[in-house]
Specification:
Pathway: Carbohydrate degradation; pentose phosphate pathway; D-ribulose 5-phosphate from D-glucose 6-phosphate (oxidative stage): step 1/3. The chain has about 475 residues and is of the alpha/beta class. It folds into two domains: about 140 residues, NAD(P)-binding Rossmann-like Domain (Rossmann fold, 3-Layer(aba) Sandwich); about 270 residues, Dihydrodipicolinate Reductase, domain 2, CATH 3.30.360.10. It is built from 16 helices and 15 strands. The strands form two sheets. It has a nine-stranded mixed beta sheet, sandwiched between helices. A six-stranded parallel beta sheet has the order 3-2-1-4-5-6, sandwiched between helices. The structure holds NADP nicotinamide-adenine-dinucleotide phosphate.
């Protein structure tokens, strides 16, 4: 399919934390890709801002190095690279102090869209927002992008929201969750609301359960100490898995506007029933073959933080009563896989005895490694031999169906372009984040009070045995985490 890239309006994008890991690995490579496909207009500017003292030339050299490292074919794109780098400048700014702010003011053009990407620790959000206002940098339609984690609990999320709202309107705040920038996640909305096929089936009458898995094969090496303060529930479930759950469970919005979509997502979170501790399994990976355990990496031999969590969640509303959602995420698992599996009920009357107890239809929405959609169906095996049945998958991999452009687009670059366009649909609203914390907080505080150790699991496995039981006891089973 021919790529249909629509250039955005000219912009000044300030990346606070431009020398940091996220900027180097995702933000700047993403912008470079948008530039190479022609989405960045001629006079777009990217202004890096961080504490390190350097000039434009040194910053451009740093970015060149990152692009060569993180963009697969960057060394074949010398001319594009030079042109892109010429759009970059750098200002040394102290987020908490006064240094550099006047220089930043002079970098910005009047009457041009301004976006400010805060790729820094959330403890700097308030200071940066206040400094921006004090220096008159934020115009009425400036956009501010903030990274996860958005709070550690409900109280800290509320505090962050009020810090940001002191200086910006909600319509200017873009809380990023890069899962929402994935092609398949948006396709879930297209699949559900642009087709008449699914909607009549999308309820507890026809859907037995939904499984949402975000499995990572890597452990917490290198960021163990940081992760240990958070755990899988805060790091993954409260945000990424919750977003996937919302998009799967939400009612059709009346129109495709940011607030109509986000209103429906908030309603899902508010409909979540409190989760029983008996419906949750927490895990922590062991060490093996000289590879350290979770506790080794966390630097705490007695850490009770979970590197894995699986749970059964009930959405208490008319559509989903009787259809549980099983969520599962963890580190050091068998493979890096993310998917939503919508598993349909068996036919009410089975005329094929051989199919008794076998898995029914399922719609699998795969987020990684290869974004795509699979429909699991049963058909008759071709040829003689009577009515022999076989399970087949109707598969659509976006890269194949839609061409290389779809494959190459990263969530970050898509979301940054949405910021420039002023489209908040794929960003979390303040009340949405708070609702998700209000749901997660009692679960986490229950663990903190009980001080029960998470179950241990082997690296390279599918998590603790108990997690399998969570579904087995109800006659269901997890899909394999496929390598
Ligand atoms: P990082 O590598 O530690 O980079 C932090 C950046 O902040 C650096 O550019 C640093 O500048 C700048 N900075 C620190 N203190 C500053 C100050 N007082 N004034 C101005 N700039 C200051 O962090 P990161 O991994 O890029 O993460 C950035 C944010 O994104 C964090 O909130 C993180 O949780 C979130 N995030 C990161 C990832 C990821 O994959 N890395 C993924 C999701 C979310 P100097 O280096 O010049 O001091």
């Amino acid at each position: 399919m021919v790529s249909r890239v629509i250039p955005v309006d000219p912009f000044d994008l300030v990346v606070f934390g431009a020398t940091g890991d996220l900027a180097k690995r995702k933000i700047l490579p993403g912008l470079f890709h948008r530039f190479t496909v022609g989405q960045m207009p001629e006079d777009a500017r990217v202004i890096g801002a961080a504490r390190s003292d350097m000039d434009n030339t040194a910053f451009q050299a740093l970015v060149r190095q990152s692009l060569l490292e993180f963009v697969p074919n960057a060394d074949d794109l010398t001319a594009e690279l030079d042109l892109f780098l010429s759009k970059l400048s750098y200002v040394c700014v102290d987020a908490k102090g006064t240094k550099g702010w006047d220089n930043l003011v002079s970098e910005l053009r009047p009457d041009t869209i301004r976006a400010f990407y805060l790729s820094v620790t959330p403890s700097l959000f308030g200071a940066i927002a206040a400094n921006m206002n004090a220096h008159g940098i934020a115009t009425k339609d400036s956009r501010i992008v903030v990274e996860k984690p958005f709070g550690h609990d409900l109280a800290s999320a509320k505090a962050l929201n009020s810090e940001l709202r002191r200086n910006f309107e909600e319509s200017q705040i873009y809380r990023i969750d890069h899962y929402l920038g994935k092609e398949t996640v948006q396709n879930l909305m297209a699949l559900r609301f642009a087709n008449s096929l699914w909607e009549p089936l999308w309820n507890s009458t026809h859907i037995d359960h939904v499984q949402i898995t975000v499995a990572e094969s890597l452990g917490v090496e290198g960021r163990g100490e940081y992760y240990d303060k958070s755990g899988a529930m805060r790091d993954m479930v409260q945000n990424h898995l919750m977003q996937l759950l919302c998009l799967t469970a939400m009612e059709p919005p009346s129109r495709l506007t940011p607030n109509a979509v986000r209103d429906e997502k908030v309603k899902v979170i508010e409909a979540l029933e409190p989760v029983e501790q008996s419906d949750i399994v927490r895990g922590q990976y062991r060490g093996r073959d000289g590879e350290g355990s979770y506790r080794d990496h966390a630097g705490d031999p007695e850490s009770l933080t979970e590197s894995f969590v699986a749970m059964k969640v009930k959405v208490g509303n008319w559509r989903w009563s009787g259809t549980p959602f099983y969520l599962r995420t963890g580190k050091k698992l068998r493979a890096r896989t993310s998917e939503i599996a919508v598993v349909f009920r068996d036919p009410p009357h089975m005329i094929f005895p051989a199919l008794e107890g076998r898995r029914g239809n399922a719609l699998i929405i795969r987020l990684q490694p290869d974004e795509g959609i699979t429909l699991r169906t049963t058909i008759k095996e071709p040829g003689p031999g009577g009515m022999r049945l076989a399970e087949v998958s109707l598969d659509m991999t976006f890269a194949e169906a839609l061409g290389a452009d779809a494959e190459a687009q990263d969530a970050y670059e898509r979301l940054i372009m949405d910021v420039i366009r002023g489209d908040q649909t794929l960003f979390m609203r303040g009340d949405e984040v708070e609702a998700a914390w209000a749901w997660a907080d009692p679960i986490i505080s229950g663990w903190e009070e009980s001080r029960l150790a998470p179950a241990r699991y082997d690296p390279g496995s599918s998590g603790p045995e108990d997690a399998l039981m969570l579904m087995h006891r109800e006659g269901r089973r997890w899909r394999e985490i496929e390598v």
